[in-house]
Amino acid sequence: MAAEMAKPFLKWAGGKTALLPELLKAAPKQIETYYEPFLGGGALFFALQSEGRFKNAVLSDSNRELINAYLQVRDNVEGLIRALGVHQRKYRAAEDRAEYYYTIRGKRLTCSLGGAANLIFLNKTCYNGLYRVNSKGHFNVPHGRYTNPTICDEANLRAASEALQGVELQVADFAVGPSSAGQGDFVYFDPPYVPLSETAHFTSYTANDFGMDEQERLAAAASNLAHRGTAVALSNSGHQDVAALYREPCFDLAQVKVRRNINSKAAERGVVPEYLIRSG
Ligand SMILES: C[S@@+](CC[C@H](N)C(=O)[O-])C[C@H]1O[C@@H](n2cnc3c(N)ncnc32)[C@H](O)[C@@H]1O
Questions:
Q1: Phi (first) and psi of residue 140, to 5 degrees
Q2: Could you give the number of structural domains in the chain?
Q3: Residue 44's CATH number
Q4: Which domain range does residue 83 map to?
Q5: By CB atoms within 10 Å of each CB, which of 28, 29, 50, 185 scores lowest?
Q6: Domain-terminating residue out of 121, 154, 187
Q7: Which atom of ligand 1 is nearest to the CA of 210?
Q8: pLDDT at 272 over 70
Q9: pLDDT tens-digit series, residues 211-221
Q10: Contact, 131 vs 9, CB < 8 A?
Q11: Ligand 1: distance of its center to the CA of 149 in Å?
Q12: 107 and 141 Cβ atoms separated by less than 8 Å
């Protein structure tokens, strides 16, 4: 058990903190292996871990720089803390913080200790704490204006490292990560959401867009797992197309109201309906 309860060490668009109480109710009390194939900030992983609800965990995401950050937290947390400490000192002392931010943003995010430190630094100092890349795969979020952001939260990084010991981390497509799940296991899918408005670009987490064909492939993967007896939960926006995708009797759909602040579109900020889908 970690000395401090670990929380997500990254802020991620679509972070699940607001939906967490519902998700904790939806999850089985005892889980053999927990799978989170759209990892992002991993809010449900950290919450289930602190309650000791699973024996094993397999966490995956298609974003390799993100998975690299988790690997560095798991395997090299003291080195990471030192590298983030350097960023924190330099950033706070910089005459022009924006200039320091853009210098780091201009570097390619590599899958290394330095790459993980740069990713966490950018996440803590960028506008709204978003992860967004352009079509060339470059991180392109502007500088944020926080007075004194905590760039290196040592206690939480150590707690997260402890929570991640023994956990399997994979760069994988959502259908591959949980492919060996069976009875007694639990899979939570938190995909990029179906946008509520035409102009909402909340789906651009990676260079590849997550369109309706991907949503259909996801519904098929969730249905396969449910038919094999794996417990499945999935969150998505309150769009009618989502309801249409999960009409099968093996699914139970509930609408939940969630407060969302990170969105450039006013229509998708504030209290918005979302679907919480569970295998019945
Ligand atoms: C909504 S976010 C996850 C939020 C996260 N669960 C949390 O609590 O903060 C969606 C994630 O899906 C990942 N992703 C997008 N397409 C994917 C795919 N085909 N397979 C696996 N992951 C994918 C993105 O890299 C992003 O991290």
A1: -130, 30
A2: 2
A3: 3.40.50.150
A4: 70-154
A5: 29
A6: 154
A7: 16
A8: yes
A9: 999 999 999 99
A10: no
A11: 25
A12: no
Report whether pLDDT(178) > 50. yes
Q: Is residue 11 part of a domain?
A: no
Q: What is the pLDDT of residue 122?
A: 96
Nearest CA to ligand 1 atom 5: 40
Q: How far is the CA of 192 from the centre of ligand 1 (A)?
A: 6
Tell me, using a 6 A CB cutoff, whether residue 237 lines ligand 1: no
Q: In a 3-state reduction of DSSP, which class is residue 56?
A: strand
The finding on whether 68 has its CB within 6 A of some atom of ligand 1 is no
CATH of the domain at 99: 1.10.1020.10
Q: How far is the CA of 126 from the centre of ligand 1 (A)?
A: 19
Q: Which amino acid is at 216?
A: E
How far does the centroid of ligand 1 lie from the alpha carbon of residue 151, in Å? Answer: 23
Looking at the CA of residue 36, tell me the nearest atom of ligand 1: 6
Give the residue among 29, 141, 156, 28 at the shortest CA–CA distance from 81. Answer: 156
With a cut of 60, say whether residue 198 has pLDDT above it.
no
Q: Are residues 95 and 25 in the same domain?
A: no
Cα–Cα distance, 62 to 180 (Å, whole number): 18
Q: Report CA(195)–ligand 1 centroid distance (Å).
A: 15
pLDDT in tens, 143-163: 998 888 999 999 999 999 999
Best residue among 23, 205, 208, 268 to mutate for probing ligand 1, ranked by most atoms within 8 Å of CB: 205
Average pLDDT over residues 246-261: 88
pTM listed for this prediction: 0.92
- One domain for residues 241 and 107: no
- Are 216 and 249 in a shared domain? yes
Q: Please tell me if the CB atom of residue 40 comes closer than 6 angstroms to any atom of ligand 1.
A: yes
* Helix axis angle, 154-164 to 64-75, nearest 10°: 90
Closest Cα partner for 218 from 65, 62, 46?
62
Residues 56 and 177 reside in one and the same domain:
yes
Among 91, 122, 154, the domain boundary falls at: 154
Confirm whether 9 is domain-assigned. no
What per-residue confidence (pLDDT) applies to 205? 43
